[in-house]
From TrEMBL:
<dbReference type="InterPro" id="IPR036291">
    <property type="entry name" value="NAD(P)-bd_dom_sf"/>
</dbReference>
<dbReference type="Pfam" id="PF00107">
    <property type="entry name" value="ADH_zinc_N"/>
</dbReference>
<dbReference type="InterPro" id="IPR013149">
    <property type="entry name" value="ADH-like_C"/>
</dbReference>
<dbReference type="GO" id="GO:0008270">
    <property type="term" value="F:zinc ion binding"/>
</dbReference>
<dbReference type="InterPro" id="IPR013154">
    <property type="entry name" value="ADH-like_N"/>
</dbReference>
<feature type="domain" description="Enoyl reductase (ER)">
    <location>
        <begin position="12"/>
        <end position="337"/>
    </location>
</feature>
<dbReference type="Pfam" id="PF08240">
    <property type="entry name" value="ADH_N"/>
</dbReference>
<dbReference type="GO" id="GO:0016491">
    <property type="term" value="F:oxidoreductase activity"/>
</dbReference>
<protein>
    <submittedName>
        <fullName>Alcohol dehydrogenase, zinc-containing</fullName>
    </submittedName>
</protein>
<dbReference type="GO" id="GO:0005739">
    <property type="term" value="C:mitochondrion"/>
</dbReference>
<dbReference type="InterPro" id="IPR002364">
    <property type="entry name" value="Quin_OxRdtase/zeta-crystal_CS"/>
</dbReference>
<dbReference type="InterPro" id="IPR051397">
    <property type="entry name" value="Zn-ADH-like_protein"/>
</dbReference>
<dbReference type="InterPro" id="IPR020843">
    <property type="entry name" value="ER"/>
</dbReference>
<dbReference type="InterPro" id="IPR011032">
    <property type="entry name" value="GroES-like_sf"/>
</dbReference>
Amino acid sequence: MRAIQVTEYVKGPLDLKVSDNVPTPRPSATQYLIEIHSAGTNFFDLLQIQGKYQHQPALPWIGGAEFAGTVAAVPSSRPQGGSNPKYQVGDRVFGATQGAYATHVLAGEDTLLRVPAGWSFEDAAGLFVTAPTAYGGLVHRATVRSGEWVLVHAAAGGVGLSAVQIAKAMGATVVATAGTERKRQIAREFGADYVVDYRDAAWPGEVKTLCARHRTGDGRAGVDIVYDPVGMIEASLKCVAWNARLLVVGFAAGTIEKVALNRVLLKNVSLVGLHWGQYARFEKETVGVVWQGIFDLVAQGKFRGIAFTDESFVGLESVPRALQALGGRETWGKVVVKVIDDHAGQSKL
Ligand SMILES: NC(=O)c1ccc[n+]([C@@H]2O[C@H](COP(=O)([O-])OP(=O)(O)OC[C@H]3O[C@@H](n4cnc5c(N)ncnc54)[C@H](OP(=O)(O)O)[C@@H]3O)[C@@H](O)[C@H]2O)c1
């Protein structure tokens, strides 16, 4: 098969090369063989190829984690007393496991989900991490309610754009922050009610003004929920209402904040963390509930794919450029590489 196989750590994504003769994984007793059509990119892929990520497989390994494709072979054996395979050959699935920058990958049943009806592989390849992070955070951790105001930081990013849609679907008003005009336009297109440029240091004042103008009661002081994948909790405490919940989702800005806890007390607010990846380990029962909630929103037309479309990335050769664009903060939504260009009807294998 073809794959981006890392045999030694590289300085940056443009040093990555496609190998033509990587052995295709053999159908497995316990895992599904997937033919990959699209692969999602993640910031941690950039760290991993440089040897700077917390999870570094022994060299050589294949880069990439998120994918969507078709089942090429089902597990040949089932555990004793186990049920039949959930997916059949030809089924359209998406998921995440090491080795998505390839034409084929092996994946366990618990790392796969069915591509929603009507969805492209491209959109599905960006769903596995972003959507449940936003849904799990807003619905299960921050218990968002209809009528509340939600401030979504980096709203045009992968987890941000998902959060905008989910907050809207739950009946909230969304204030979205983003660093460029194009990104703020995207946040609006996905449902944000108000947009704010958070590169302007006065942005908390702008959020407060919006709340004072459009809200009543305690809400005049600020928003009810802050969804923060960037590391902006300290500044966000300036524009929250009584009983607000501030969700710590990530540190895209690169710094882990220290927060003055007296503000948490004085404003009667909650700081809430979310580590979606660990739900499969510590709270398995919630994983299915979250996905059912997402698939219900998809069926109701309230949640759509967020694949970046300003530039297209076709074929494994485009992975370096896709990762470069992601790392350069040039993109919005989810940067996805079409390993096979389904629209052109031609295989890039
Ligand atoms: N807690 C969890 O379970 C969980 C799950 C998934 C992801 N995450 C974390 O959430 C964060 C965002 O993930 P994502 O997939 O949405 O990433 P993404 O698509 O790359 O978006 C990140 C956004 O952060 C903003 N940003 C602010 N400062 C930045 C900087 N110095 N460098 C790069 N971007 C910066 C950018 O928006 P502007 O240009 O508009 O500022 C960018 O669009 C990451 O830290 C990720 O690790 C956490």
